[in-house]
Specification:
Length: 525
């Protein structure tokens, strides 16, 4: 498998080979290769943070397939950052306005469950990562600064102050340049993170002197949690202090990666191998934001689809922007199931290309799922039920060997399809009456289906549907299928109609057609 992995072109393997080349195929001095993900707990963790951990884990697993070198993954929380604004999607917003510019780890938890807002968000993130079974080490900026873990690196930044300034100042506006310093003192009186100019620095003593707004000059250590660094110098310092080998980031941070890389080189370190991914967009095509809480959350996806389908969605084309909303779920569930079905009969080289290898760390489950999610959605629509056993009654007739116990993935899909149908499909159904030609075609279809035996195959049923569409000269033929979906299901699209007939039953489908032709309200089925 290792020999095949060396040639595999799936993007995690491409990235893993970059890391292996970086370390020269040898164990680094620190004893392991370090993968890192970064997260700012200024708002509730969103799906983009999860995606970064997942994708980095995929690269890490690919690396471990290529090499026996030990690895670690740090999930780093920048929880010492000052709170610049109050998020829109939290309770008790007004109570937090007085804590602007305080470290996030010092801001009270508006939910009342933790000692700080950062602790609440960190706990939410860790719970989700743990549920997914990620192997990672959680690292807090507050703990790292205050424990002295970053002291040596902070003193290095102080020593290289002029070099850091020469990198940062040209990127800033004229007014900002006048007061900019990479060091942000933590005010001993208020506890706020201060944006103030430095007037003196003492490299040997490890101190700086800054001037407050009231004109008073204050001397403070740069170590021990008395100061925090600005974002780009902080990122570079972290790379330097921890000797990070790999970190990916979004397209919006391209300039930050560039500047931080220059700074870490100025400190005498080496920037990690990097990978730039595109951003997730909400239903309006806008960037997903922690503070706004727009877009789809991890919890919302998992309410309507298996967690592995979310991982599948994250695997595909990270460098392409992805619209992330509820309507992408059915398609990705079915694509995941299709790839899972193909995996078992594939050669090893093809398996390494298959998304499910990366979703399941090289060990996908062995379960044949005989029905697509979209077919189950249409079955739920036709049955209009909240009872899984009703759907299983049809499934058992279609696939006699299937059962909830023997087919746990399918059983989960049944529950998800009912929930998705009730929340998203049913409220938006718009049934319409058939026009004259459609009525004749539907009557002909019902008559044609009546000639078929129960237990007919999906392919045979589909052929009958095709023939009727051709007989009544629907051109293009997809207009015929759209008519079926709109008249019988109240929606513009659906799965292969033959698959629905085979699952729902010939006589039941004929009855459904005749009910529609009689003008009966199918939404009350």
């Amino acid at each position: 498998m290792r020999e095949l992995a060396e040639k595999a072109n799936a993007w995690p393997f491409v990235e893993a080979r970059k890391v292996l080349k970086r370390v020269g195929g040898k164990v680094p001095e620190k004893g392991y290769v370090l993968f890192q993900t970064g997260y700012g707990p200024s708002g509730l963790p969103h799906i983009g943070t999860f995606a970064e951990v997942l994708r980095t884990t995929m690269v890490r697993r690919a690396f471990e397939t290529l090499s026996d070198i030990p690895t670690k993954l740090f999930a780093f929380s920048d929880d010492m950052d000052g709170m610049r604004g109050v998020p829109d999607n939290i309770p008790n917003k007004d109570r937090l306005t007085e804590f602007l510019n305080f470290p996030l780890s010092s801001v009270p938890d508006p939910f009342g469950t933790n000692k700080s807002f950062a602790a609440h968000n960190n706990e939410r993130l860790r719970a989700f990562l743990d549920e997914y079974g990620f192997e990672y080490t959680f690292v807090s900026a507050t703990e790292s600064y205050k424990s002295g873990r970053f002291d040596a690196a902070l003193l290095k930044v102080l020593e290289c102050y002029d070099a850091v300034q020469s990198i940062m100042l040209p990127t800033l506006g004229e007014e900002r340049r006048k007061t900019y310093s990479p060091f942000l003192p933590i005010c001993p009186e208020t506890g706020q993170v201060l944006q103030v100019p430095l007037v003196e620095r003492d490299v040997e003593a490890g101190t700086i002197v800054y001037q407050r707004e009231d004109g008073k000059k204050v001397e403070t250590l740069v170590t021990g949690g008395h100061c925090k660094l600005q974002w780009k110098p902080d990122w570079a310092m972290r790379w330097y202090a921890l000797s990070v080998d790999y970190e990916m980031s979004g397209k919006d941070l391209i300039d930050s990666v560039r500047q931080s890389s220059k700074i870490v080189r100025a400190l005498g370190g080496r920037p990690p191998e990097s990978y730039t991914y595109e951003l997730f967009l909400d239903e309006n095509g806008e960037k997903i934001s922690k503070s706004r809480g727009n877009g789809l959350t991890m919890e919302e996806w998992l309410a309507y689809a298996p967690k592995d389908s979310l991982a599948y969605f994250m695997f595909g084309k990270p460098t392409a922007a992805k619209r992330l909303y509820f309507d992408v779920i059915p398609k990705n569930v079915d694509e995941y199931l299709s790839q899972l079905s193909k995996y078992g009969d594939s050669e090893d080289a093809d398996r390494l290309k298959n998304a499910v290898w990366h979703v399941h760390n090289g060990n996908p489950p062995q379960e044949e799922v005989p029905l697509s999610f979209n077919v189950l959605l249409n079955l739920a629509s036709a049955c209009n039920t909240e009872d899984k056993s009703v759907l299983w009654g049809f499934i058992s007739r279609y696939a006699p060997d299937a059962s909830p116990d023997a087919n746990p993935i399918l059983d989960d899909l049944v529950g998800f399809s009912i929930r998705y149908y009730l929340d998203f499909v049913k409220p938006n159904k718009k049934y319409r009456a058939a026009d004259e030609r459609e009525r004749e075609a539907l009557e002909a279809l019902a008559t044609s289906l009546e000639t078929l035996p129960e237990g007919v195959s999906a392919a045979d049923a589909q052929n009958h549907v095709y023939e009727v569409g051709k007989q009544f000269e629907f051109d293009p033929l997809r207009d015929w299928f759209r008519a079926l979906y709109e008249i019988l299901f109240g929606q513009e699209q659906g799965p292969r109609f033959g698959s629905f007939v085979a699952l729902y039953g010939v006589s039941e489908t004929v009855t459904l057609i005749r009910r529609a032709l009689s003008g009966e309200d199918l939404s009350a089925a």
